[in-house]
Amino acid sequence: MPPYGQPHESLPPCDVPSGQQALVVRSFPLSRGSWFAEHQHPAHQLAWCTSGLLSVRAPGGTWLLPPSVALWIPAHTPHATGATSAAEMCSPYIVPTHCPVAWPEPTVVAVPPLLRELINHLAGPGLSRPARRRAEGVLFDLLQPVPARDIGLVWPTDPRARTVAEALHADLTDSRPLAAWSQVAGASARTLARLFTAETGLGFGRWRERLRVQEAMPLLAQGRSVESVAHRVGYASASAFIATFRRTVGLTPGQFFR
């Protein structure tokens, strides 16, 4: 439940490419729950993992990223990167002056098989300058935004609302309405509703939905079936979970993890 897990002692090398290179690819493992604290780069970054599930916090939101998608992070954008489940990060860092993409804010992009292979190709040694330039150009052409939304979750700080939030996190299948929490929290349903909206920016129902979707992400990334994950996070049917996932993320689980 804490917003960050165990921080890494230092950031991996991610220097700006030299000479005529438009980009350099850096790879490194991230253990589950580990984070690189907030930092920024002079280069654009495409935050992507070949396996596992990345989490990136940046101005504008929080994104969870399986290998099917990546997050474009513009140069000089403060961000923190972690692993919701053990991940192998493989990120291109791109010189802004050599890049035709100029998105001003973090943007989720699809990672189809060709883009995946190009990143791996550019990470390898021995490419001639003309071959590298051609591959870089194709990579830029393949960067296509997808309508995946920020799924950041702000936790309430008032002890009464916090009690409810922690209980829901401990038991994702608890579907009691807010009125049923009054005695446990020591506050009326109206007060609890006001606290959730004021402190988290979401109504109680939407907050619980987002919590469930966040907790479902690592399970889906492991390849578990939508139906089993739906039941695990409190939904009676896969269709109900898919509807909530799409409303929250902007894509269905199949689209997001494909």
Throw out a few tags for this protein.
258 residues; alpha+beta; nine-stranded mixed sheet; 9 helices; 9 strands; elongated; disordered N terminus
How would you portray this structure in words?
There is one protein chain. The protein has 258 residues and is an alpha+beta fold. It contains nine helices and nine strands. Strands 1, 2, 3, 4, 5, 6, 7, 8 and 9 form a nine-stranded mixed β-sheet that branches. β5 and β6 form a beta hairpin. α1 runs antiparallel to α2. The chain is elongated. Residues 1-7 have low confidence and may be disordered.
Order of helices and strands: EEEEEEEEEHHHHHHHHH
Radius of gyration: 20 Å
Average pLDDT number:
89
Approximate strand percentage: 15-25%
Globally, the shape reads elongated
**Distinct helical segment count:** 9
Helix content: 25-40%
Structural class comes to alpha+beta
Low-confidence stretches: 1-7
**Overall number of strands:** 9
Straight-line N-to-C gap: 27 Å
Largest sheet: 9 strands, mixed
Set out the fold topology:
Blueprint: E1 6-7, E2 23-30, E3 34-39, E4 44-47, E5 49-58, E6 61-65, E7 69-73, E8 79-94, E9 107-110, H1 113-123, H2 129-142, H3 159-170, H4 182-185, H5 189-200, H6 204-221, H7 226-232, H8 238-249, H9 253-257
Parallel strand pairs: 1-3
Antiparallel strand pairs: 2-8, 3-8, 4-7, 4-8, 5-6, 5-8, 7-9
Helix pairs in contact: 1-2, 7-8
